[in-house]
Design brief:
This protein is mainly α. The chain is built from 13 helices and 2 strands, in the order H-H-H-H-H-E-E-H-H-H-H-H-H-H-H. This is G-protein coupled receptors family 2 profile 2 domain-containing protein.
Length: 326
């Protein structure tokens, strides 16, 4: 069976320390960013709407994924397992929650349905159930007596057959296949949502050019923002996917810069999600309203544009329901 040194290839001890530091640092940023969104949801009652509840569970998954990634240590058996399985579970849950957000937008805007809140139990069964199933499948295929690493971090163990092809097949089936399936689903869904809203905007422009000029600017900004959502997952896991393919082709040879981008970008996924999904106008407005309670000498240090943006824009996901019912 493959040893740790054989699977790690030509990475030196100093390279591994650098990768460990990058993983810890990037995961810390993601933990702080996603933890901030979780805290906002718990503290601000006006954010406890169904649309932001999905963002809350996304941030919670990212926060736990980052936490277990930080405490993981490939040099220690127990912590390697703790990092490998829990990180796998919550990372899968994270990108699955993005599909529920995309599905909610599509069902509300394109299909004109208002029953999305009734689907919350199904969302939980889908996300947590799928994450649990793929994690169990991965654990069954592992040999718990021989710990090794795919890539630069503790993501998998050697299979009982000792064949590298089996290791990568299981890892692709239980992680990268659902990941790229989610990316494809999000891309197609947001494309349909954006196209639908653009058509509605053109119709509004035909009815009243003056109203169109007044109301379309926030919509265009929101549409552009939605277009970047699928890119978060692509940017976070593109280098990891390439690294896994390279490991399959040349299992004994590691490319340090590719492993560095793999670890760093994947660990920043929680930060990217917290900025894109979490820091919307509703959150900024809720924060500013609390800032009004601060003394004037403290409030002057915050940007003045925060209040105007908070007052002019509604929550992107919530406003869809209002717009669709008109």
């Amino acid at each position: 069976m493959a040893t740790v040194q054989a699977v790690m290839g030509n990475l030196s001890a100093s390279d591994r320390r650098i990768l460990t530091a990058v993983n810890t640092g990037a995961s810390t940023f993601s933990f702080i960013g996603s933890g901030f969104i979780v805290l906002c949801y718990l503290l601000f009652k006006e954010l406890r709407k169904f649309s932001f509840k999905l963002v809350f569970f996304l941030a919670l998954s990212d926060m736990l994924c980052s936490f277990f990634s930080i405490i993981g240590d490939p040099s220690k058996g127990f912590f390697c397992y703790a990092q490998g399985y829990t990180t796998h579970f919550f990372c899968v849950a994270s990108f699955l929650w993005t599909t529920t957000i995309a599905f909610t937008l599509h069902r509300t805007v394109v299909r004109h349905k208002t029953d999305v809140e009734d689907l919350e139990p199904m969302f939980h069964l889908y996300v947590w159930g799928t994450s649990g199933v793929v994690t169990v499948i991965r654990s069954i295929s592992n040999d718990h007596g021989h710990i090794s690493h795919i890539g630069a971090w503790c993501w998998a163990q050697t299979g009982r057959t000792g064949k590298a092809s089996m290791i990568f097949a299981v890892h692709f089936i239980t992680f990268y296949a659902p990941l790229w399936g989610a990316i494809l689903f999000n891309a197609v869904t947001y494309f349909q949502v954006i196209r639908m809203l653009k058509n509605a905007t053109r119709m509004a422009a035909g009815m009243s050019e003056r109203i169109f000029q007044f109301d379309s600017r926030p919509d265009v900004k929101v549409l552009n923002r939605w277009g970047y959502y699928p890119l978060i997952l692509i940017g976070s896991w593109f280098f990891g996917t390439i690294n896994r393919i390279h490991d399959f082709i040349e299992p004994g040879h590691k490319i340090f810069w590719l492993s560095l981008l793999d670890v760093g970008m994947a660990a920043l996924m929680g930060l990217f999600n917290s900025i894109a999904y979490g820091l919307n106008s509703s959150v900024r407005r809720a924060i500013y309203e609390r800032m009004d309670l601060l003394p004037e000498r403290l409030r002057k240090w915050f940007p003045k544009s925060l209040r105007s943006r908070g007052q002019q824009q509604e929550s992107e996901l919530v406003s869809l329901k209002i717009q669709d019912q008109q």
